[in-house]
Amino acid sequence: MDVRCHQSAMSPLILQGEPYVEIAEQPKQRGMRFRYKCEGRSAGSIPGEHSTDNSRTYPSIQIMNYVGRGRVLITLVTKSEPFKPHPHDLVGKDCREGFYEADFGPDRRVLCFQNLGIQCVRRREVKEAILFRIQRCLNPFNVPQEQLLQIEDYDLNVVRLCFQVFLPDEHGTFTRALPPVISNPIYDNRAPNTAELKICRINKNTGSVKGGDEIFLLCDKVQKDDIEVRFFTHNWEAKGSFSQADVHRQVAIVFRTPAYCQTNISEPMTVKMQLRRPSDQEVSEPMEFRYLPDERVNCFHEKRKRTAEVFQKLMQDWVPGANRSDRLPVVPVVSRQFATARIKTEPLSSFPCPQQAPPDLSQHHPNSTVSQNHHIFFPPAPQQTAVGPPTTVASSWHRVAPAVNTYGPGPQTMDVRPSYNMNGHGTYGN
């Protein structure tokens, strides 16, 4: 017998009321694999629901309102009511013919079972296993035989533990049966539709706040038509976008992230991401995912913020009646000491006279005294010869010479304009 017991903190006195069985620790529902007999290896031990890698726990029960000897019987039953005996077998120490049976003494208040494993049968072996249980009267809930033989109703991927305790009668025989109790369902970790959901690895855990980032997720076996990727916070939830074709061999999912509920965030937002199975609402352990703000939106807001600040400063600087000493200069003022210095004057004789005399204004203004006093105001410069009336090419354009028209009767006049030969000298002619 491998039943480990612990002393209860309660008094060893018999309590008032009818004895009953209470499950002290439930078995862990997921993470255990059912083994076939042909695998030739141990089926392992069913862990407790509080079991961790550093601290192992196991399913346990407690007999309430009773101190004394007794016998415990553990069998496997189906998940759904009516709870029928299951075709799978319990294996391990103190197990025989598919069930566990052991006696306990009066000093044992909590019974812990650490060597219970599950050995599964094939579909074609289900009927034989059920007939064997009928012969051994392993039917704790007295389900009719015709229901027990409905083989197609058995789910081979999930079982429950059924605990039965028998107390001794006045003759010392264990005939006084307490009401049976059943545990939480235990799922086969090998079956995709009941296996424990687990995210093994992702290629990145950050993405744009607008969504649409492609994520590669590695996981344990999942059903392509019964899985979803859930993003959530305490007040928001969204699902990743993918199709059944994006689920690769039940162990990888390629999906696109959903958009966050607020796309105008200025700082990264951390949310939770997990796998969820819609059929039974089973979820995996969540992991963190960070939404990053949109850089374009941030640049736009920063630019608007800077523009508003500059405009506000300008408005404050040019408020009428404000103290000018409190105003900030819009354009930096640089003091120049030479701006107030006296400008140096130069004598008139240092500027040479023009090489060409000014035009004779007396032709246009006969009465003007400027031409008469020209020599007074503009004396000739030293070593400068007098220049006569100017002769320019433009003045020659208006000279008209008589010509004989050989093409028609009567004398004609011709406008003679200058032309230029190859040497650059002007000539006249037509």
TrEMBL record:
Keyword Nucleotide-binding assigned: no
GO cellular component, one term: nucleus
Region (Disordered): 348-393, 406-430
Species the sequence originates in: Callorhinchus milii (Ghost shark)
Residue stretches making up the RHD domain: 16-193
PROSITE patterns: REL_1 (PS01204), REL_2 (PS50254)
Biased composition (Polar residues): 364-374, 420-430
Domain of life: Eukaryota
GO molecular function: DNA-binding transcription factor activity, RNA polymerase II-specific; RNA polymerase II cis-regulatory region sequence-specific DNA binding
Name the UniProt record assigns to this protein: V-rel reticuloendotheliosis viral oncogene-like protein
InterPro entries: Ig-like_fold, Ig_E-set, IPT_dom, IPT_NFkappaB, NFkB/Dor, p53-like_TF_DNA-bd_sf, RHD_CS, RHD_dimer
Keywords tagged on the record: Phosphoprotein
Record GO biological process: canonical NF-kappaB signal transduction; cellular response to stress; inflammatory response; innate immune response; non-canonical NF-kappaB signal transduction; positive regulation of transcription by RNA polymerase II; response to cytokine
